[in-house]
Amino acid sequence: MKFLPLIWSNLRRKRVRTLFTLLSILVAFLMFGYLIAVSNAFNIGVQIAGVDRLVLTNKVSIILPLPISDLERIEQVPGVTDVAHADWFGGIYQDPKNFFAQIAADPERYLRLYPEFLLPEDQKKAWMADRTGAICGKYLADRFHWKIGDRIPIMAAWQKKDGTTSWEFNLDGIYTGATPTTDTTQFIFHYKYFDESRVNGHGEVGWYIIRIAHPDQAPQIADRIDAMFANSDYETKTSTEKAFMQGFAKQVGDIGAIITAILSVVFFIILLVAGNTMMQSVRERVTELAVLKTVGFSNGLILTLVLVESLMLAAMGGLLGLGLAWLLIRRGDPTGGALPIFVMPTGSLALGMVAILLLGLATGSLPALQAMRLRVVQSLRRA
Amino acid sequence: MQRIINWITQVYAVGVLNLRTLPRRFGSSAATIVGVAGVVTVFVAVLSIGEGFRATLQQTGSPSTALVIRTGSDTEMLSGITLMDSRVIQDAPGIARGGSGPVTSRELLVLVDVPKISTGTEANVPLRGVTPEAFAIRTNLHIIAGRNFEPGRNEIMVGAGAAREFAGLQVGSTKTWGKTNWTVVGIFTDGGSVSESEIWSDLTILQGAYNRGTLVSSVHARLSSPDEFDTFKGALVSNPRLNVKVLRETDYFSEQSIFLTKLVQNLGYLIAAMMGIGAVFGAINTMYSAVAARTREIATLRALGFGGGPVVISVIVESILLALAGGLIGGAIAYTAFNNFHTSTMNWQSFSQVAFAFRVTPMLLIQGFLYSVVIGLVGGLFPAVRAARTSVAAALREL
Hints:
The structure holds two protein chains of two kinds. Chain A is α+β, with helices and mostly antiparallel strands. Chain A has two domains: 4-45 and 253-382, no CATH class; 60-234, no CATH class. Chain A contains 15 helices and twelve strands. In chain A, strands 1, 3, 4, 5, 6, 7, 8, 9, 11 and 12 form a ten-stranded mixed β-sheet that branches. In chain A, helix 11 (255-284) runs parallel beside helix 14 (347-372). Helix content of chain B is 52%, strand content 20%. Chain B is of the alpha+beta class. Chain B is elongated and about 95 Å long. Chain B has twelve helices and 14 strands. Classes of the chains: A alpha+beta, B alpha+beta. Chains A and B meet through helix 2, helix 10 and helix 11 of A and helix 2, strand 4, strand 5, helix 8 and strand 13 of B.
């Protein structure tokens, strides 16, 4: 500890060089924190999936429907505590670019299955009473500047009985999420209105959401349900919500691998830059280190001093970089809609610390060894 | 005139001196080169994803083919057109005439689950039911293995991209979807377009397997000339009995790629910007130490009469050359490692997989080089100015 002033003055020796090396490390850790958040955002569906929820889709293809009559049979399966159904509406609001999830569902059931969607009681009552009513998540309301009472027109591929394809809804409520990672990008309206007004597909739903009493029973209950509908016209595929989301994430591709590759390149470069700085710094101080050795500093102490110097550099740059990343992440989605849930994952700070430690050690070890092995006489002669 | 020549000679002299002494500063110079190389590699690699995706979707379709889908649907997948409506569409003006009447193709697009080879998990692959007319519309289609499917049989033909990315789609293998067994009888290419990510089957068989009756997703029509599009579209859109959307195939497919291309571009430029800033700091570092190591030399030159300007320029030139070297290396790495790297991903707009290859285009490489030049320029600026500003006496005194 008493050697800290010595180390600090060494860093201040070539202030410009230290500053710019620090800034490079800062940028590297800024990227680290930010890209981990990006990678996390791509896989967010997996993380926010409910542990006690199963998803049931048509076995042949996700775009094929299931009969609503399946509902009763699913409810009676032991271990199942609640069931809801949903349909993907897939319409266009003003412009195809304004893509968001539009879901036709039984309101009571859907809200029961997703208790993390928080809707004020009065808005809920209004929605229940309004046949053409709908609710949307806060993110969606902010994105399109919707207020309660607005009339939302959506063009869909579903034809109504009156021959048109323009569906209008009253916005009766805006739900918020129980946690920062809850999905508030959905637009939910009454299945009844949907089913009564559409020309094709009566009595069909897109998928079922099932709550089970014990999450560890998930595989058995899933098998039981699929066996129940095996060999029927609508064979089912049941999986946990997590596995279902993971399937989608995997379809996009291995984003995690790409991000890891980029970060590896970044860290390799930073290693070179910071390592080069440390090497230069030690090379310049050869005479001084020799003097220290003459005065009585042990080899081990010299080694430690250089390592601590390198660790300090890494720590200052790294912590500032991570802090900056955190601030930037708070500004939200950088892609304008593709990654609505954008947060810094909890483990990433700890991971960052480990990276700082490794960086400091890696860049400092070679110069430190060099410093330790200095031959006093040779070094003094060099002056 | 003499002054200008004099000035240029000065710049040249100092510049050559700088470059000749470069080997002495090998460590830091190498760090800059590697740093810039890394930035350019990542920049080009990430953006080549978007380019590859866009290229695949733009190869698809020709401006003289029109696509008709239901109003309100974004994509073929969500669209449904009845047999009666398709007959009306087929009689519209502007369509080219072939041997057996108007060249139109009714097609049904559905999704099937096929395991993706790279991840082992299931992915949504498009399965398209077609009639023989589809082959008259897609003129770039070539069967490269096996044969075409026979109408009326449970046979499928697989696009080259799909065969490459998804499991179990070789000629001779059987796939079971729902209650139907399908045999793969051939593999086709279609000029690198999106069709290569699809599986094709007989329309009637598919309609039966998916309970679609006589419904199709879309009608493709070859126009007698690209200019006939407006006539064709006008006739259909003004027909009160139809509820359809008419697009040129090329427009449809470039729209389909907008979301993903924008996503990749946004992220790519963001990452490249952050890395670029880091590289600038690294370059500044290098150039500062380069200048610091030669303070006495530079001061001597200035005492001899060399102007401040040539010194500044020579430092900047050195910085740019180092950065450019890094840029060239980075571009070369990106090209060899990533160009034509085949992969597939989910196109959210069509909800199905698209097989594509990374494309390192000349434009991208040029952007990368320019980027490295900018990094070199910014990195060399401050050290250069500092070198020129230090008073000669103070510099000569420095140890």
